[in-house]
Design a protein that fits this description.
The protein is 42% helix and 17% strand. The protein is built from ten helices and twelve strands. The strands form three sheets. An eight-stranded parallel β-sheet has the order 10-9-8-7-6-3-12-11. Helix 5 links the parallel strand 9 and strand 10. The longest helix has 18 residues.
Length: 283
């Protein structure tokens, strides 16, 4: 797996990297509102949390200004930019870390890149108007995620004939469009989209076939942290899903996932270190 260039920084994807989730929204499913004071972003709290993630071993911090949890309500383009851009500017000035922007907003992609963002992470796989062109123009790595439906509808009745084949086909198609737009294959990251229009069984099938996604040659990102699949499988509330998150992260890492996107950075970094040590014994 090659080293990818993320603006002024680089990531070695020959080992699994940990991406910390930094939501700057009042309504995210896991930690919504934690960085808000009277509905206004607390930049001090944001920097404190991001700094802790970096100190714990995160090499990427993923900043999101629009919740995409099931039934989440959309926000305006300007509102999302008002939430995210001050955060990007603050983190870029204070931390040595790749800043990822969790957005489908073409204008936000462009402006974030100017402020020091190093990666784009789009749950809609650059399908919104202008997003593909904007992302390509930044020269940044992009993560393309699969979602069936929209955040408002995705969990109503997700259905597939073969979830792995259909998700892989969709992501391969989107990756090819990115290459046609001028992106390098090694800068395109795929995400099967756990919990985004999938049942528990479908999520488990996708995880089981992690190695098939890795075999496409594109770097793979896995995002299962605190997802509702653990509520169904383990009967755990959001705050008590660490074990499930770590188990799936470990499995994905053993199968060759390049990035795991998580809320619990410290514990995940420990898991990744153990996994890499075990894998290294076979070399």
């Amino acid at each position: 797996m090659p080293v990818i260039k993320c603006a002024s920084r680089s990531l070695d994807l020959s080992t699994t990297q940990v991406m910390g989730i930094l939501n700057v929204t009042p309504d995210s499913f896991s930690d919504g509102g934690s960085l808000y004071e009277k509905q206004q972003l607390s930049l001090d709290a944001l920097l404190y949390k991001a700094t802790a993630m970096v100190e714990q071993g995160a090499t990427i911090v993923d900043v999101g200004g629009e919740s995409t949890r099931p039934n989440a309500q959309p926000v305006s383009e300007q509102q999302e930019m008002d939430r995210v851009l001050p955060a990007v500017e603050l983190l870029a000035k204070n931390l040595d870390v790749v800043i990822s922007i969790d957005t489908s907003n073409a204008a936000l992609m462009t402006e974030s890149a100017k402020l020091g963002a190093g990666m784009l992470n789009d749950v809609r796989a650059l399908e919104r108007e202008g997003a593909l062109v904007a992302a390509a123009a930044t020269g940044l790595p992009v993560c393309l995620m699969h979602m069936q439906g929209t955040p408002q509808t995705m969990q109503q009745a997700p259905a597939y004939q073969s979830v792995t084949a259909e998700v892989m086909r969709y992501l391969s198609c989107r990756a090819q469009l990115c290459e046609q737009a001028g992106m390098m294959a090694g800068q395109i990251i795929l995400d099967p989209g756990f919990g985004f229009g999938k049942t528990l069984e479908q999520n488990l099938q996708l995880l089981q076939h992690t190695s098939a996604f890795v075999a496409t040659g594109y770097p793979l990102m896995i995002g299962t942290s605190r997802k509702s699949m653990f509520g169904q499988l383990l009967a755990r509330e959001v705050a008590d899903r660490l074990a499930g998150s770590l188990a799936t992260g470990a499995y994905a890492g053993m199968q060759g996932a390049a990035i795991v996107r998580v809320h619990d950075v410290k514990e995940t970094v420990d898991v990744v270190k153990v996994i890499e040590a075990v894998k290294g014994q076979g070399e």
